[in-house]
Amino acid sequence: MSNSNVTATDKKLLDLLAADANLTHGQLAAMLGVAEAEVSERIAALEAQGIIKGYQAVIDWEAIDANKATALIQLQVTPEPEQGFDKLAHRIMQFEEVEGVYLMSGGYDLTVIIQGKSMRDIALFVARRLSTLEGVRGTGTHFILSRYKDRNVIYHDEVQKETRSNVFYD
Amino acid sequence: MINYDQFLNQELANVKPSGIRRFFDIASEIDDVISLSIGEPDFSTPWHIREAGIDSLEKGKTWYSPNRGFADLREEISRWFNRKYGVTYAPDTDILVSVGGSEAIDLALRSLLNPGDEVLIPVPSFVCYTPLTEVAKGVAVQVETKAENNFRLTVADIEAHITPRTKILVLPFPNNPTGAVMRHEHLEEIATVIQKHNLFVISDELYSELTYGSEPHVTIASIPGMKERSIVINGFSKAFAMTGWRLGIAVGPKEVIAQMTKLHQYGIMSAPSIAQYAAIEALKNGDKDIEYMRDQYDIRRRLLVNTFNELGLTCFEPEGAFYVFPDIRSTGLDSETFCEKLLYAKHVAIVPGNAFGDCGEGFVRVAYANSLANIKEALKRIKEFLVEIKQA
To answer: Which of B80, B113, B137, B356 would disulfide-bridge B124, Cβ 3.0–4.6 Å?
Structure first.
């Protein structure tokens, strides 16, 4: 998909925001070599076009509550004649436990990402709420046991030590 | 007890230590130091280049290369200089592959100097030129570049230091630590003086691929009449993030390259073969990597220059390398005190400007070869530091 309204500078702006949404418009302007007003204007435009969907903190919930669990659910679905997978996907995304819903290529149809208070909580949700939905032919539940890297953030790592050396030590 | 002084080479023994050791010792004892002091890319070597090195290992190609470097690599180097900088060097005679740019600088100085010959060395600059000149029994004549000239070398700077013994001019641009570059017109100006006084040039262009202005890098060798009186040093460390591979390039007149090759052959034999295989891949298919890394450096450079100027630490816009060189005199502190206090108080490591020559006093070198997140945090801490020293 390409959007002809997105310039090369927009692309750089989006890359910077994707890595760190906390950068001020002043900092972004300096980094891109444009006026601060232009940054504000471009961000507003990208938001209005629905290209920037939102700004969220990346939070390690499991650090607060070790029982918290996240699972990836594979759903096999019988598509509906007119609406394909859309109707069921829309139904599923209404559940507040559901963090993400994706239509997939390959061996199954929908991936659903679920956050729950515990593994049991999630397993019950799948059994009672998802597998009972009309059109769902089968489910597979995969719990995330450890996050190494999520949304480009490295987890459970000591403060990244500088591994480069200072030459000309003497 | 043996008195070792009687055995030691006196020129080498007289070389002063760099003086920044104390400083790095402090830094290594503090846990959460953000180091903007390191002069090498934070990127790892691009994967396809590493893979070419790995492939040579897997195939067991672990032997010496020819003294000058593999013919394939010299051909690629020749193409590269032609394509990038518009100068032509013959792969068989005009090119030597060295162990890093530093070895090439050493070889060039030792191949050219006779005792007492004078070498003009613009400062602030990379720390190796003066010691290597002195060990080669040359006389290092430091030529101070000035902040008001954006640390460029001018005709007047050169002429003020010319004597009948002046033989060599070192050209360290794009410059570490100032980030200054010599554009085409600046090189043309000094070329006339170089020719008038019959000087020979050692041009250290290691940072040639990291320039940020509208013009790409210009080599002194592309100025009419200069190719025949210049050894141009380049390498893979900065352009391709290959510091640890230790691979440099020297190109120039075959008469001088032949002498350098003789020295290299007896002292080193040949540059590492694994690194040379990787370098062939880098020159063939590395343009996109350079472009990506340069873009990232450029973004960080702009943020640093802008923020330092906002904080009242005047910072001219560096057009090359990955350093900014802000003026800290408004704080009333000297360079070393500033850096030491900043390190203790805020755990940010930068390098005092005087480490690169006395005229760097009043400035500090801040390397932006570090992640944006670290640079942002370091700038926050420097801002707090400036407020605190103002209150103190």
So the answer is: B356
d(CA A111, CA A99): 11
Say how many CA atoms lie within 13 Å of B98 toward its Cβ.
28
Inter-chain Cβ pairs, chain A and chain B, closer than 8 A: 53
Whole-angstrom distance, CA of residue B327 vs CA of residue B363: 4
Decide: residue A114, CB within 10 A, 0-12 exposed, 13-18 middle, 19+ buried.
buried
CA distance to B159, B190, B225, per residue, from B186 (Å): 15, 7, 15
Q: Give residue-wise pLDDT tens across range B73-111.
A: 999 999 999 999 999 999 999 999 999 999 999 999 999
DSSP assignment, residue B263?
Answer: H
Please answer whether residues A135 and A76 qualify as being in contact, where contact means their C-beta atoms are separated by less than 8 angstroms. no
From the list B281, B267, B284, B269, the residue with the least C-alpha distance to B65 is B269
> Vertex B40, ends B369 and B144: CA angle to 5°?
95
Q: Considering Cα of B62, then B66, then B68, then B70, what sign does the dihedral take?
A: negative
Which pLDDT belongs to residue A1? 46
Could you give the CA distance from residue B89 to residue B93 in angstroms, rounded to a whole number? 8
Distance, CA of B259 to CA of B265 (rounded, Å): 10
Overall size of chain B counted in residues: 392
Amino acid at B300: R
B142 contacts: CB under 8 Å, gap ≥ 6 = B121, B122, B123, B130, B357, B358, B359
* Total residue count of chain A as it appears in this document: 170
Of residues A169 and B274, which shows the higher confidence score?
A: B274
- Residues in B whose CB is inside 8 Å of some CB of A read 17-18, 20-21, 24, 27, 31-33, 35, 37-40, 42, 127, 295, 299-300, 302-303, 305-307, 372-373, 376
Tens of pLDDT, residues B14-61: 988 776 777 777 888 888 899 999 889 999 999 999 999 999 999 999
Question: What residues form DSSP beta bridges with B118?
Answer: B139, B166
- Rounded distance, CA B76 to CA B139, Å? 36
Tell which residue, B236, B212, B234, has the closest CA to residue B43. B236
Tokens of B359: 């005229």
To which residue do tokens 């499991």 refer? A62
A33 has a chain B CB within 8 A of its CB: yes
**DSSP string for residues in B307-357:** HHHHTT-------BTTEE--B-GGGT--HHHHHHHHHHHH-EE-EEGGGG-
Inform me whether the pLDDT recorded for B310 exceeds 80: yes
